[in-house]
Amino acid sequence: MTYDEFLETKRFALEQSGCEPTYLPKFLKGFQRHLVEWLVRLGRGACWAGCGLGKGPMAMVWGMNAVEVTSKPSLIIAPLAVSRQFVSEAKKFGLAINHTQDGSLKSGLNVTNYQRLSNFDASMIGALATDEA
C-alpha cells in the first residue's frame, strides 16, 4: 500500500445533520450570517471566530434555529461570569434567554455555567452550544 492509498483510507466526510435556517435576524453582520447559515445546515460544528466578532449572538441565533427544529430548549454553557453576560447580550439584540442553574429549562434559549451542567437532563435539551469565554 502506498502512502497516498493509506491516506485515502483515513478520509471521511462529515454528514450534515442540520436543516435550512429559518431565523436569520437583521442584526447579524454578513460574515456572521454566513457562519450561522453554515452551522445550521451542518447541524453541528465549531465557530472559531476571534474575540469580539460576535460568537455569543451567533450561538444564540443558532440555538433559536435548533429550537424550531427540535421543539426542545437550547442550552448554552459558558464560564461562570460569562453566563450572566449572555443575558445582557440577548437583551441588546431583542432576544430572551433564561439564566438557569438548577436544571430547569424554559422554552427557547437557556444559559448556564459549566459547574452546573450536571444538574441538567440531556434528554430535555434540543441543542447545546459551548462558550469558552
Draw up the topology in text.
Layout lengths: L2 H7 L20 H13 L12 H16 L3 E5 L1 H13 L4 E3 L9 E5 L13 E4 L3
Parallel strand pairs: 1-3, 1-4, 2-3
- Which structural class do you get from the secondary structure elements? alpha/beta
SS elements, strand count: 4
**Strand content of the residues, in percent?**
5-15%
Question: In angstroms, what is the radius of gyration?
Answer: 17 Å
- What spatial order of strands do you see in the largest sheet? 2-3-1-4
Query: How confident overall, as mean pLDDT?
Result: 94
Major sheet, described briefly? 4 strands, parallel
Order of helices and strands: HHHEHEEE
Give the count of helical stretches: 4
Measured distance between first and last alpha carbons: 45 Å
